[in-house]
């Protein structure tokens, strides 16, 4: 039999992805409130500071810089940026709504009209260029007031506030947004709860109970959003969104294989199981028993979760993860934010993230085999140092190589039988890095003249990858 190269399906959703807190800026404008991203210090020590006991969610400009406050000023430049996305041929643009633009403190009774009107303008501009928005409802930017006054997602009251927020945006944008996702990288809270769950773990031994209680509240909130979407926008699709990193055993030692399996279940499958299958999996029930976790579950919660499962799985893919049961500090994969040990078969990025295109094919197969619903790669990209040449060009061939190899892996997965909706490259325009708060860690196909010291004109420039990706989209992935 002749081998026939698989093709991306007609109507495949090519595009790019960003998050409100990493591109918008406009910190003081439109009656916006302060969110978690607004209090994150810039620099390589960002996550270390956030994960240290006693982080107080306050701004200290004498001690730190706060690059998210201006970011790349999408708030004022969205028309210019969307025109560039359209020039590349985007079918979709994955973005998020900043909760604090709609409810500045999170617990108001009525939404902020200035915030609602801003996203009206953004959605209208996208549609003018034939681009469908793919909207994440909550992307690492919980209102700080809900963190300091309620304890973040530890509080059941936050479910009510989230429902009010969801009703407001669904009501306003039901004719403008067809694709929604509830919580960005919901499973990431297991590693950095401040971003995803809205609270800091003070002591290692105290982390289990509040973490999983917070997750239960998020599952109830996510299911509530799915229910509202079906009621208010029956033609729309709503998905969950997870951070997926396949877990490899370091070797064939059964102890290491079993350890890798448990890590795979806990990190990659737990949150997806609840949101896709509609119930807590058996492995997590054992985990709860072993860690003495007792969830406060209200009447009707489990039924709500069971009856309101998602339409598709959106996920980010940056790296795989290699694990062994007992590892030394010398073996650690230093750059991988999900820990693990170094994989001797993989190279790493400038920031130490191991590059593994085959891992994306593995991920797509694992997810589709387990859940049998459509998948959507909504984040994938390379953070790297870019150089502007004397003639103004940015020759990021390394980024093209990275994206090409991952798109090839997707094409192979499609031939494997995976139902894949689309692909939105992460940081289609340079932005503030979530993990380090740096501008120098550039992901974009579009360069933004903004630097770690705060200098820069904010001028946009097309990188070599801009023109390459434009052709990829124009040929529906045939020419890579």
TrEMBL record:
Tagged with keyword Magnesium: no
Protein family according to the UniProt entry: Belongs to the glycosyl hydrolase 1 family.
Organism for this UniProt entry: Ectobacillus funiculus
Pfam families associated with the record: Glyco_hydro_1
Annotated GO MF terms: hydrolase activity, acting on glycosyl bonds
Active site positions: 379
Assigned EC number: 3.2.1.-
Domain of life: Bacteria
Keyword terms of this UniProt record: Glycosidase, Hydrolase
Stated name of the protein: Glycoside hydrolase family 1 protein
């Amino acid at each position: 039999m002749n081998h026939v190269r698989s093709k991306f399906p007609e109507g495949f959703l090519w595009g790019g992805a960003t998050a409100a807190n990493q591109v918008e800026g406009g910190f003081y404008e439109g009656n916006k409130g302060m969110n978690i991203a607004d209090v994150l210090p810039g620099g390589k020590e960002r996550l270390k500071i956030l994960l240290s006991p006693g982080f107080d969610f306050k701004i200290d400009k004498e001690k730190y810089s706060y690059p998210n406050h201006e970011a790349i000023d999408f708030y004022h430049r969205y028309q210019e940026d969307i025109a560039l996305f359209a020039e590349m041929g985007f079918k979709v643009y994955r973005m998020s709504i900043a909760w604090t633009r709609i409810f500045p403190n999170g617990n108001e009774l009525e939404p902020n009209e200035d915030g609602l009107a801003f996203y009206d303008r953004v959605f209208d501009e996208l549609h003018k260029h034939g681009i469908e928005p793919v909207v994440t409802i909550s992307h690492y930017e919980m209102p700080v007031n809900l963190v300091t006054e309620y304890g973040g997602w530890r509080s059941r009251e936050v479910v009510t506030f989230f429902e009010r927020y969801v009703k407001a945006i669904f009501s306003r944008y039901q004719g403008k947004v067809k694709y929604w996702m509830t919580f960005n990288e919901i499973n990431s809270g297991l590693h950095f709860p401040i971003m995803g769950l809205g609270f800091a773990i003070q002591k290692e031994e105290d982390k289990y109970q509040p973490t999983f209680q917070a997750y239960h509240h998020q599952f109830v909130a996510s299911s509530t959003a799915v229910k509202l979407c079906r009621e208010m926008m029956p033609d729309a699709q709503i998905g969950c969104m997870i951070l997926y990193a396949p877990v490899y055993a370091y070797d064939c030692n059964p102890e290491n294989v079993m350890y890798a399996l448990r890590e795979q279940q806990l990190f990659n499958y737990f949150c997806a199981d609840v949101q896709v299958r509609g119930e807590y999996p058996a492995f997590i029930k054992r985990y709860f028993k072993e860690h003495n976790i007792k969830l406060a579950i209200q009447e009707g919660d489990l039924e709500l979760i069971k009856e309101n499962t998602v339409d598709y799985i959106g996920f980010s893919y940056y790296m795989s993860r290699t694990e062994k049961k007992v590892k030394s500090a010398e073996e650690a994969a230093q750059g991988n934010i999900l820990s693990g040990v170094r994989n001797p078969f993989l190279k790493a990025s400038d920031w130490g993230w191991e590059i593994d295109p085959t891992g994306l094919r593995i991920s797509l197969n694992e997810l589709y085999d387990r859940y049998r619903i459509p998948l959507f790669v909504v984040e994938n990209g390379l953070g790297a140092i870019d150089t502007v040449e004397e003639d103004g060009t940015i020759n990021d061939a390394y980024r093209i190589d990275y994206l090409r190899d991952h798109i090839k892996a997707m094409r192979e997965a499609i031939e494997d039988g995976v139902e894949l909706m689309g692909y939105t490259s992460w940081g289609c325009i340079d932005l503030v890095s979530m993990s380090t708060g740096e501008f120098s860690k550039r992901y974009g196909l579009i360069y933004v003249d903004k630097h770690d010291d705060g200098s820069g004109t904010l001028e946009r420039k097309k990188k070599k990858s801009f023109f390459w990706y434009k052709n990829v989209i124009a040929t529906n992935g045939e020419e890579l």
